[in-house]
User: Which sequence fits this backbone?
């Protein structure tokens, strides 16, 4: 069984004043922010460091060290029944361990399954109790009890579950990794009379509180289970707060307008409301032994005292980008414990206040657009590295893109460029290499066969590697297997012959004549019959090319999308895993992904998103360490698994773009990607009518990553010429010969000038 990973991150909280927040020390002198001489002189206008959505409470001058413990997936150790789908429903902190509730079903939700799991830190794995239909039972004081189907939230260090005697009473029971320990008391009889959702909470005195969402009240019981009082609450209860055993108990949650509040359990009335507005409505809270209340959502940790909410720690800025917060508690030593979902796994964070922190060297990474998936990778690196911190620079808005790009380019010319540069910022990579602005990076990658074929080559200049690709997409077209047969490749002549013999009316939907010439003919660098890039010669006036122009005009899509097309590609290209279903569905499950016509191979083209290293950087070692981390097999698998829905849950959607299932550049990451896709497909197949993933689809995926090649980067330089000179022919204004001669002159002149 795999043991959990444990790391300790040293982090710096933002430095503002915290006044009157009991239990936390303020730091009069904090260490300077780590920086380098080069970083101080860099241009920063029109740029911002992008983090998840932030609010604007006054920030506390507190330094925290963070210990992170990532637990293995609880569900992965459960022996599932045939057809069973199971997920982690809830999780709680208890003492030094963690407990999970898992729920599962099979069929059309006909059968439900329940599991309770407790992590055994000594053994380094989950203890699983299959609790469906009374599967777990144990003897306490000579009586056989069944249960452990629920975990009840306690603000102490003990864990409580349900235990029952069949056809008799049900009880609250203290439990641990070894199962039932002690019966606390019987369940209140009143529970059976309550309609709607209910929740139980247990305080440090083992008193029990039953909240009814429907009735908007809390029933308070003593530790023997006797009703003490019922308190009306004007809102929704999330949990209870108590300083210590014997102390007063409070409830926290939201009012009826879903705004965070804290209330008294003596009266039920709201005692704290003003000042909590900047806290998300989905949050957790805990109370320290000195009475300080801490509140946290997935973005920030707050301290609340005397009606003032102050931001004590920003999770996102410090690299902790989480999808869910399950639980939080304050230990006797003042450390704060959090149980969260982060990077698709359950993790525990322990925040401990410290007087000082070691400095980290800053690595400035500038790019033109924000990428939520890449931001997650940056966050993971920043948490794990004890020496370096990557800061992302982006334009403030799309209107600032040009100024931002020009500013970074000028900075490189003066020796003060950002340490790492996104490929979108570089308009002429070859030119920058020639000027000595970019560092050669061949020492970062290992064996070429480990990567998607052609991915590394997209970043080569004169045979040397100057960029590191971290994601890729593919440009290709698919065909009906019944039409192309068992071919492994298509020349342009073969392609045109097959189209002319078929019943199709257009080559491809939304592909006009000029687009066809660019994508299907001139994009093939190995076909020197029309353009010889190395020899700087073109032949666009011969009979062969004129015939191609006539073919393009006949089979161009002029906007009538009802016509039957020979080739197909999804609207956005092959940039997400699920596109394979679109392709196979289009051809009724029988597709062949040969790509565009190409001499001597497959016209499957790969493009990448890449990062380059500025040759004048003063933190080259750290920058290379980050790039190596980014293309490691483990990180690439995490990168490919990040989804648009997760980005929204992480609070990233307002600042960055994200998509489902970005393609990794490391081949081994595809294995996990395919496995995850197949595991998630059941409901989509059943309820949305999607095709299931077939062996043929998976085979085509691996075929793509093994046969992809870099696209013709030079074609972009002449694309405008092609459209300008050929459209007159396709519209019927001039002959094919006239259009070809005009295009020949312009392309040849361009090649001479180059």
Assistant:
């Amino acid at each position: 069984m795999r043991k959990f990973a444990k790391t300790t991150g040293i982090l710096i909280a933002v430095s503002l004043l915290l006044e009157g927040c009991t239990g936390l020390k303020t730091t009069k002198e904090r260490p300077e922010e780590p920086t380098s001489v080069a970083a101080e002189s860099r241009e920063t206008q029109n740029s911002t460091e992008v983090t998840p959505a932030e609010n604007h409470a006054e920030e506390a001058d507190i330094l925290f060290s963070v210990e992170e413990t990532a637990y293995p997936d609880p569900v992965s150790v459960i022996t599932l029944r045939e057809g069973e789908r199971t997920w982690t429903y809830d999780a709680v902190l208890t003492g030094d361990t963690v407990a999970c509730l898992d729920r599962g079903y099979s069929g059309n939700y006909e059968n439900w399954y329940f599991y309770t799991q407790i992590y055994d830190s000594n053994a380094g794995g989950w203890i699983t109790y299959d609790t469906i239909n009374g599967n777990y039972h144990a003897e306490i004081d000579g009586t056989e009890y069944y249960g452990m189907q629920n975990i009840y939230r306690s603000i102490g260090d003990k864990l409580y579950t349900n235990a029952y005697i069949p056809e008799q009473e049900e009880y609250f029971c203290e439990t641990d990794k070894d199962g039932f320990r002690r019966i606390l008391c019987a369940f209140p009889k009143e529970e059976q009379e309550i309609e709607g959702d209910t929740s139980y909470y247990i305080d440090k005195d083992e008193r029990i509180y039953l909240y009814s969402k429907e009735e908007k009240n809390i029933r308070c019981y003593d530790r023997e289970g006797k009703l003490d009082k019922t308190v009306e609450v004007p809102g929704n209860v999330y949990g209870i707060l108590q300083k210590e055993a014997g102390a007063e108990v409070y409830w926290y949650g939201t009012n009826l307008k879903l705004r965070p509040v804290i209330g008294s359990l003596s009266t039920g009335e709201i005692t704290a409301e003003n000042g909590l507005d900047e806290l998300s409505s989905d949050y957790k809270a805990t109370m320290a032994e000195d009475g300080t209340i801490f509140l946290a959502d997935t973005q920030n940790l707050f301290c609340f005292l005397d009606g003032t909410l102050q931001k004590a720690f920003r999770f996102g800025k410090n690299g902790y980008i989480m999808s869910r917060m399950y639980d939080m508690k304050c230990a006797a030593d003042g450390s704060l414990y959090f149980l969260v979902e982060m990077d698709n796994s359950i993790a525990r964070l322990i925040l401990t206040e410290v007087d000082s922190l070691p400095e980290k060297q800053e690595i400035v990474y500038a790019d033109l657009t924000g990428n939520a998936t890449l931001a997650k990778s940056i966050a993971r690196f920043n948490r794990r590295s004890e020496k370096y911190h990557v800061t992302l620079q982006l334009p403030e808005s799309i209107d600032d893109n040009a100024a931002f790009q020009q500013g970074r380019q000028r900075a490189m010319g003066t020796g003060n460029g950002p340490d790492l540069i996104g490929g979108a910022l570089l308009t002429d990579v070859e030119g920058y290499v020639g000027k000595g602005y970019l560092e050669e990076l061949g020492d970062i990658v290992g064996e070429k066969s480990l990567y998607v074929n052609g991915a590394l080559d997209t970043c080569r200049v004169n045979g040397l590697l100057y960029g590191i690709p971290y994601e890729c997409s593919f440009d290709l077209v698919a065909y009906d297997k019944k039409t192309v047969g068992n071919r492994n490749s298509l020349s342009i002549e073969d392609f045109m012959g097959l189209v002319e013999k078929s019943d199709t009316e257009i080559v491809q939907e939304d592909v006009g004549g000029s687009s066809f010439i660019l994508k299907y003919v001139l994009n093939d660098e190995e076909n020197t019959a029309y353009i010889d890039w190395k020899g700087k010669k073109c032949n666009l006036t011969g009979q062969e090319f004129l015939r191609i122009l006539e073919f393009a005009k006949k089979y161009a899509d002029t906007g009538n999308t009802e016509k039957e097309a020979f080739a197909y590609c999804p609207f956005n290209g092959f940039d997400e895993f699920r596109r394979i279903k679109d392709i196979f569905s289009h051809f009724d499950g029988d597709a062949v992904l040969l790509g565009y016509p190409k001499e001597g191979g497959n016209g499957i083209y790969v493009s990448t998103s890449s990062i380059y290293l500025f040759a004048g950087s003063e933190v080259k070692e750290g920058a290379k360490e980050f790039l190596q981390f980014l293309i490691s097999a483990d990180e690439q698998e995490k990168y490919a698994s990040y989804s648009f829905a997760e980005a929204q849950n992480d609070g990233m959607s307002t600042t960055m773009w994200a998509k489902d299932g970005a393609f990794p550049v490391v081949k081994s990451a595809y294995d996990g990607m395919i496995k995850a896709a197949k595991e998630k497909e059941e409901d989509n197949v059943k309820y949305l009518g999607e095709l299931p993933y077939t062996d043929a689809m998976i085979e085509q995926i691996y075929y793509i990553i093994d046969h992809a090649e870099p696209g013709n980067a030079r074609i972009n330089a002449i694309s405008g010429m092609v459209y300008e000179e050929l459209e007159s022919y396709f519209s019927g204004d001039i002959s094919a010969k006239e259009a070809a001669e005009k295009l020949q002159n312009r392309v040849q002149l361009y090649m001479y000038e180059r």
